[in-house]
Amino acid sequence: MKKTNSKILILFTVITVMLMSIISTGCGNEKNSTSTKQENSTSSTRKIVDGTGKTVTIPYEVTRIAASGALNQIVLILGGADKLVATAQVVQTGFFPKVYPRITEIPAAYTGSGPGTLNMETLLKANPQVVFGTFTQTEQERLQKANIAFLGLKLETPEDIKNTITMVGKVLGESGEEKAKKFNEYYDNNIKYVSEKTKSSEKVKVFVASGTPKGSLTTNGPNDINTSYIEAAGGINIAAENISKESSTSNEGTSVDFEFLYKNQPDVIIATSKNTYDYIMDTSSSNQWQSLTAVKNKQVYLNPKGVYLWSVRSAEGALQPLWLAKNLHPDLFNDLDIKQKVKEFYKNYYYYDLSDNNLEDILNPKK
């Protein structure tokens, strides 16, 4: 009997020790978990890798943002527009204010077309925590002195666009990150869709006409994002095929002459502005464009422009491959309703219902 009682006592002791160990471990894990959460919630900064590959320290919670050019549109589609305290002049006109009226009330730290020229005094007065853009060494030094985090950009390829979307999403926080992930999936799917359908088709020779209609003849070179869209849509950018990357830049138009056009005769011409399109298509004039096969065949198209021009480094470029494919290979994309795609885009990413007049203004811009 004593032996039995002794065994029971030993067993009880072992079970008690095991239970205490489990409880202690659980409490320890809970304590560690709580400690980690407290550390995260009390941390004042975090680190972000910008478009140039540089690691930048930013505030843990970002509530004040400045953005150049198309970055305003990216901030908008990721739900962070109310955090903008400094913007770019280029987005304060056109369709952007219809989608987001407050943009006209925000100080324009970037003036002029495209990404814009930075007015440092306006930016410093707005006192952002973070600014998206490109910066000279002097500008970087002034921003550092003002304790403003600056995130550099690289926007030459679709992969660069997705990386930028991801970067902006991370700056905005958890909701922005989730929106960025969903947008990148949509962006990828559009490119894959047109690439798959055109991979076996004959490639269409394309020339992108930019610059001023009567001035110097400029186009998109091999480093330009639009070249990637053209290739995905079953086309060949004749400038990219014949101009080296070293002599081209994605930020400014690549200069060519009419001899180049005569020699390489494009099948399709894409005009990036209404003035350029009208000048090319003016049959009453004796301009050199009239001698090109694409013009004679009426294969000249005006590139759409909504909140931002589709053919440049913006998130609205997600629509560019669809529009290009529809025009370069109409037989392959007979079922593609580009109007419906644009309406869905605006509804899903801007929460804006386009009217038929809105749609016409986007697909056939007046400027």
From TrEMBL:
Start-end of Polar residues biased regions: 28-46
Pfam families assigned to the protein according to its UniProt record, in alphabetical order: Peripla_BP_2
InterPro entries: ABC_Transporter_SBP (IPR050902), ABC_transptr_periplasmic_BD (IPR002491)
Disordered, as annotated region: 28-48
Domain Fe/B12 periplasmic-binding: 63-336
TM ranges: none
Entry's family note: Belongs to the bacterial solute-binding protein 8 family.
Name under which the protein is recorded: Fe/B12 periplasmic-binding domain-containing protein
